[in-house]
Specification:
This protein is α/β, with parallel strands linked by helices. It has helices at residues 28-31, 51-56, 68-79, 81-88, 95-103, 109-122, 151-161, 171-174; strands at 2-3, 38-39, 41-44, 61-65, 165-168, 194-196. 33% of the residues lie in helices and 10% in strands. The longest helix is centred in the middle third of the chain and has 14 residues, at 109-122. The N and C termini lie far apart (37 Å).
Length: 204
């Protein structure tokens, strides 16, 4: 059985890559007390900002989301951090640069990830939003004090993702490897061997 760290409950600082709509950061103090302290495998098919995962840090995990660009960002942080950092270092925080980078269409996976991280970090209220043409259209948030390329933070997130499976897929595929009898939609039964965080973003 795997144990998890419960960083928030232990008063430790959690590092998150992005703020994401429907995220659970503000609910962690309510969620963590009712999560199992150990389990065989962790599934999170609506990963988003990954607040619960980064708080628990289970060693064996399947992390999924339907947003392929988001999953690519996590994959690049985990597997290709030097290239990602090189891209981010070329992206200054200013209004003019923000709109210039918003119009960019990088070809490399690292460049795409760097652009997503940059835009979501500096956009108004940290919002990720696409228009009907699939273009990011959130205005600049005027957070001139924010650095989108904090290398120690990205290194820690990279280490926290190492060995975990990341998948761009819907929730059914993301939990398809869960064995019969393992909980998929509830954390009520804490005696089961696997743990699934099936809390989709709110639609309100």
């Amino acid at each position: 059985m795997l144990k998890c760290s419960h960083q928030v409950m232990n008063g430790q600082r959690c590092e998150f890559l992005l703020k994401w709509a429907g995220g659970k950061r503000r609910l962690l103090t309510d969620i963590l007390p009712v999560t199992p302290g150990e389990f065989a495998h962790y599934y999170e098919p609506f990963f988003g900002g990954g607040a619960l995962f980064f708080s628990l840090l289970p060693l064996s995990a399947t992390l999924g989301d339907t947003n392929a660009d988001l999953i690519n960002a996590y994959v690049q942080v985990r597997d290709n951090l030097p290239a990602l950092l090189r891209c981010l270092r070329t992206m200054p925080n200013s209004e003019a640069d923000y709109y210039r980078i918003r119009e960019m269409r990088p070809r490399s996976s690292a460049g795409k990830a760097a652009r997503l991280i940059y835009l979501c970090t500096l956009s108004f209220n940290g919002i990720y939003r696409l228009n009907l043409r699939g273009q990011f259209n959130v205005p600049y948030g005027y957070k001139t004090h924010v650095n989108p390329c904090i290398e120690p933070k990205l290194l820690q997130i990279s280490e926290n993702l190492r060995g975990r499976k990341l998948i761009a897929a819907d929730f059914e595929e993301a939990v398809s490897k869960a064995k019969s009898g393992e909980p998929r939609f509830s954390i009520a039964d804490l005696t089961q061997r696997a743990y699934s965080s099936l809390t989709p973003p709110c639609s309100c």
